[in-house]
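Q: Here's a chain of 917 amino acids. Please give me its 3D structure as tokens.
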Amino acid sequence: MSPWLESPSGDWVAGAPAQDSHPNHTAPAPSEPSCGWWAYWRAGPRRSFGLCPAGSRGQRPGHQALACEPQPRAWLQGGAPDPRCRLRGDPEIPLLSKDEDIMIGGIISFHLRWKNRQDTYMDKPLPLQCISLNFRGFQYAQVILFAIEEINNSTELLPGISLGYKIYDACASIARGVRVALALTNGNEVVFAPSEVPCIRPAQVQAIMGETFSSPCMAISTVIGPFNIPLISHFATCACLSDKTKYPSFLRTIPSDYYQSRALAQLVKYFGWTWVGAIRTNDDYGNNGMATFTETAQQLGICLEYSVSFYRTDPPDKIQKIIDIIKASTSKVIVTFISPTELYVLMYEFFHHNLTGYQWVGTEAWIFDSETAARDRHHILDGAIGLSIPKAHVSGMREFMLDVKPLNSTSNKLFTEFWETLFSCKFKKSKSSAENQTECTGHEDVTEVQHSFTDMSLMPIFYNVYKGVYAVAHALHNILSCNKTCNNKVQLDPLTILQHIKKIRFTTKEGDEVYFNENGDPAAKYEIINWQPAENGIVDFVAVGLYDASLPADKQLNLQNKSLFWAQNSTQVPLSVCSEKCPPGTRKVLQKGKPVCCYDCLRCAEGETSNITDSVTCVRCHPEFWPNERRDACVKKETEFLSYEEIMGALLTAASLFGTCMTAVVAFIFFRYRQTPIVRANNSELSFLLLFSLTLCFLCSLTFIGRPSQWSCMLRHTAFGITFVLCISCVLGKTIVVLMAFRATLPGSDVMKWFGPAQQKLSVLGFTLIQVIICILWLTISPPFPFKNFKKFKNKIILECALGSAVGFWAVLGYIGLLAMLCFSLAFLARKLPDNFNEAKFITFSILIFCAVWITFIPAYVSSPGKFSVAVEIFAILASSFGLLICIFIPKCYIILLKPEKNTKKNMMGKGAPKSL
């Protein structure tokens, strides 16, 4: 890269380094200086104009050596050019200077404003006339002088080498800051070289301390960056300055806003403020800092209701628009990336419009500034919280800063202005002195004045200035190979110094380690400061926490257990949200057209829960669980099955046992009177087998009660199917016997030999065996199994037995139904038999009841919920069993026990007239 550019006419023009230099151009040595700010050079007969950079010199092939020459007024007027190097423009004189072996520059705003003027462009514009003394600038200058004096008095750092300084006033003007930076780079002598001597000389300063804010630093670093002169700032925090492609020689001793912006976002999130306003200075510091904060805030779920920018020179109507926006807002927290000067304007406007109750969140620019607190007479910023550089103390610094003799010895004019402003007095020699003003003696005691100059609350910032000077000193110490003495023969150049500063790592006398990362930034650590009221209306800056960017993300922010004061001296954390938090059991639904922080809370749908505040979704419960009433937790569903403990289960169990006992009693009666005609006439063997099957029918209903299991599910259906087939088979056998017996009484009939006792038993066995085979196939192929039914009820689990194979189940039921229909048909054929002999009528009634029960069972079973479906099935079993038992056996027991006179063979053989059914 070269500072020489070729003009369209072929001339070589001095200027900022270009990305693509002439291929045959030889770059000058870094140590070669220029002759001044604006100059021209001559190459043969051609002349061009440009900026002579520091250390620049070039030679074009086939031409004489290029020498920096001035562009005299006579040449512009057509006269012969002046052959001497001459400064273009007025010289810039440092306010504070001291010539020593190695020079360090400083750019500080000793004044905050300048007098406005209207240039007519008819005459040469006058230099800026700076006004409004800035005592902070004096403090920064004092720190530089303190550090240099301490280094010069040290026998360990730079022994035998004295540091000097040139400190300029930037007057809070970016343009002036660039101008004085060029003065520090090139020098200020009006004429410093005869015509025969080329413009070469060492650089004026080896490093520059300053400026305070980001925008001036960006401009200055852009100009001096190509010459690799280190610029070390103590207060410029814009993250953009970490870009070494744009600002290669910029370093700083204060952390970048890259970390501060994220720390502020985490601080806002910590206190639950999701709906905030944002105000920033309309410069690089404010715009870049707020952009990073906004990006991080969005990631943390924080919304900005408004984000406005302004500058102190903005017209009143623009500031009024900002006030109107704040008035119309609903957020109560204001995050600021703003310089103190703009904050003063804002404080006045807030007081003028009676805007109070806002919680301010600030950056290091003003949160620890006692001057800002002193100006807040109306307590607009009470309770403010923000980030500050950690506290620091340098022994001897305060005493040196309050001793202003160095100011008097180096700049009598500056000292006079400083002294008169500090003590509100005038020296006799001062032209502006008035009769009614106190006369300055020059012996006033600075330590007795309550003033921002004597306030040391910004000691952490002063410490940053101190560390910057020491960083340059340690780099020089390494370059000069200092041990007991330093090598004075080493030729210094800014690039070498810059490279060594980037690599240095040293410990201050206070024990703090100083180093720079690859971007020229220090380690990021902040204190969290809270403005708390003290006596006499003074604000205490109370450290309530720490932020360390080097720690893991979840441990970076650490709030101490201290009482915090908020806006309007409240001890309660202010609330600043667009929408209230959604409680557990609800979910957030965004409001149309509004930021994500504005939402409505909707109750979770059935079967869903949310167990956190501000949940964006509801989670469906596991099928075995169901939301509680608040829908903030899933509780285990109640399992439902027909148990023995509940009333319905107990009643059905009692009915089953009663039927069993009743069957046993009938069996006992039949067994006791087995020799009587009525028992013998009704096929006692089939009767006892039927009573046994009915007993099994009553007992099988018990398998439907209780928690379903693998065995109970297989048993209940197969037992039900087999016992009922056995029962119906017996009834069918009795029906056939009745028909055969009646046919056997007819003359010439021998049908009974075809359906004797053996055939009756075989028929029952055969019919039952078919059902057994069906059940075995069912159990083998796809048996019933316990099943948790989640669909029938939303908040209950129905424990039931799944059928497994529906074909097997319907085959069992179908076979029972087939036998029942066959039995009913045969019994119907025997309905006209004589009364005394007609058991078929009772069988017909019993089968009718059986069929009616099971036909009505189907719709009742389907429509019954949960355990009631099992109860319906048990009821059907018991009802059909009782029907068979009562219809077939109770009439006979009645005759046996109560009408024994009818229990005779004669009565049983009597012929009565047939009656219709």
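Q: Can you summarize the key feature?
A: Residues 1-80, 911-917 have pLDDT under 50 and may be disordered.
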